[in-house]
Amino acid sequence: MIPIRTALISVSDKARLGELARGLARFKIKILSTGGTAKFLGAEGAAVTEVADYTGFPEMLDGRVKTLHPKLHAGILARRDSPEHLAAIRAAGIEPIDLVVVNLYPFAQTVAKPDCTLAEAIENIDIGGPSMLRAAAKNYTGVAVVTDPSDYPALLAEMEMRGGALSQSTRFALARKAFAHSAAYDAAIGNYLTALGPDGQLASFPERLTLQFEKLQDLRYGENPHQSAAFYRDARPVAGGLALGVQIQGKELSFNNIADADAAWECVKTFAEPACVIVKHANPCGAAVGPSPREAYERAFATDPTSAFGGVVAFNRALGADTAEAVCKPFVEVVIAPEVDPGARNAFGAKPNVRVLTVKSERTANAYDFKRIGGGLLVQSPDDRALDAAALRSVTRAKATPELVGELLFAWRVAKYVKSNAIVFSKDGRTLGIGAGQMSRVDAARVAEFKAKEARLSLAGSVVASDAFFPFRDGIDVVARAGAKAVIQPGGSLRDDEVIAAADEHGLAMVFTGVRHFRH
Fold first, then answer.
1. Residues 433-467: pLDDT tens digits?
2. Of residues 138, 251, 351, 360, which has the active-site annotation?
C-alpha cells in the first residue's frame, strides 16, 4: 500500500469538493491546487498551496499555462518502484504527487448552447487537465486519479479503512475510468469540430463520428444462443430511455427482452392517456388507452392473445396490485412502468421469473439512430416528428369527424412502432388487428384483417393507419371490405389519384399526413 501524502486538485465541477477536502484533511494530506479550485477549497477551510507558489512559476497566458510544469508532471509520473526515478525527483527538489483529482473544462456543455461561438468552444478545450489525468492514469501503480465527484465517498471510505492508502485494484479501476473520460472528452471535441462548416454552421453529422458507450452487463447470449452479447448505455444517456431503467425483480434480461422492451416503452410513452402496449418479436401485437392501466391492458391484450403470450407489456402509468394481478395471469416475460407500488410488487413477487422494470416516463429521444452494416454504420436523426389534427389533409369526399380524427391519430401513433410494411386497424382507442413486416402493403392489410378475425374482433366501423403510402388501390379494397370507414396514410404515391378514387368508391374518409414512418 502506498499512503497518499500529496494531492493535486484542479476541477471545473466542484460538486462534493468540500466533502473531499475535509476527508483529505483527516489524513493531513498536502493539497496543491489552482485558481478557482484553490479559492473554493480555501473558503471551505482547507489548507491549500497554490500551484504557482509550489512550482515557482506564475500562471500565464490568461491561465492557459499553469499545470504544464515539470515539477508537477515529474511528481506524478515518477515510478515508485524505480530508485532511479525517485532519486531524480529528489535531486530536483520535487515531491511525489500521490492523488490527482481533475475534471475538465465543460466543453460538451458549452457547445450544447445554441449561441456557442467557435471562440468559446476553443477556450473550453482543456489542455493541462487531460495531461495530468493521463499522466496519473499511466502511473496508476503509484498514483490515484479521480475524475468523477461521485467517486469521492468511496475513495474516502477506503482511505479510512486502509489508513490513508488505496489498493492497487482501486487505483487501476480509477485509471481505466480516467482514460475513458479523456477519450470521451476528445471525442466530443472531434465530433464538434468536424461538424463545423467553413461558414461556422454546424452540420447534422460530423465528418468523423466517435461514440462511447458504457457496458452495463454481459448477456447470456444474443438474438440466438450461439451469439455472444452485452448491454451498453450511452455515455450521456437521454432521460426516460430504457437504458436508465431499474430492474426490480425477475430473471436476468436477455438480448431479445431488452430489444422488445425498448420498442414497447418508446411506443407507450407517446400517449397522454393511460395506455398499455404489448410487444412480441419487436412489433406491437396490442395497444390501447383506457380509464385505468388495467383497462388499457385488458383492451390491448384482447387484440391478439396468442401473440401476447410471453410478450413484453409496457405502461405509461404507475401500476397497482389489480393491474399486476391481471398481467401475471398469462405468461409474460417483461413488464415496464414508471412506478410499481408495493401492492403490485407483492403481486409480481408471486411470479419471481417475471422481469419488472421501472423507467422514468419522459418523452425524449436519442440524438441519433444507428444501424450497423458490413464495414460501416448508417446514422440518422430520430423519427420524432409530432403530428396533430391540424397537420392532416383530407383528400376524399367523405370527411372524418373530430372523433374519427382522434381515432386515426391513435392508430397512426401505433403504426409508427410496427415494422414496415405496417397496417393497424383500431377503434375506440384500441387496436383490433396489426399486420407487420410484410413485403407488400396489401399483404400487411390481409394479415391485420386475419389477426382481427382470429381474435373474433369486428372491424366494422374501424379506422386504418398505414406507415407509408398505398402504392395501389388493392390495399384500400381490402381494408374497406373488412369494415374500415377511415384511413390515415402519408400519401405521395404516383397512384394517389387511383387510391383516392378507390376510397371514394367505398365511401371511406381518408387523410394524408405527409409523413412516413418506415421502421426496418
1. 999 999 999 999 999 999 999 999 999 999 999 99
2. 138
- Phi, psi angle pair for 432, to nearest 5°: -115, -30
314 neighbors 340 (Cβ within 8 angstroms) = no
d(CA 379, CA 246): 28
DSSP string, 315-348: ESS-B-HHHHHHHHSS-EEEEEES-B-HHHHHHH
- The number of residues making up the chain comes to 520
Q: Which residue has the cell 409523413?
A: 515
Q: Is residue 247 classed as helix, strand or coil in its secondary structure?
A: strand
- Alpha-carbon gap, residue 411 to 95, rounded angstroms: 70
Least confident range of 157-171, 256-270, 289-303, 406-420: 157-171
- Helix H segments across 150-248? 152-161, 168-193
SS3 category, 160: helix
Check whether 60 has a pLDDT greater than 70.
no
Among 203, 39, 56, 188, which residue's Cα sits nearest to residue 126? 188
Of the listed ranges 34-43, 63-72, 236-245, 294-303, the one predicted with least confidence: 63-72
Is 139 or 204 the better-scoring residue by pLDDT? 139
Q: What's the mean per-residue pLDDT of the chain? A: 92
Look up cell 464495414; give the residue. 375
Residue 64: per-residue pLDDT: 66
Residue 305 predicted with pLDDT over 80: yes
Alpha helix locations (H) across 336-470? 342-349, 402-415, 441-454
Cα-based distances in Å from 138 to 87, 296, 310, 338 = 20, 56, 49, 42
C-alpha to C-alpha distance for 360 and 337, rounded to whole angstroms: 8
- How far is it, in rounded angstroms, from Cα 378 to Cα 233? 19
| Alpha-helix runs per DSSP H in 8-126 | 17-25, 35-43, 51-55, 70-77, 83-91, 107-111, 118-123
**Mean pLDDT of the region 407-412:** 97
Give yes or no for residue 63 having a pLDDT over 70.
no
Catalytic status, residue 427 = no
Q: Which one of the listed residues 14, 85, 177, 281 is annotated catalytic?
A: 281
Look up 215 and say whether it is catalytic.
no
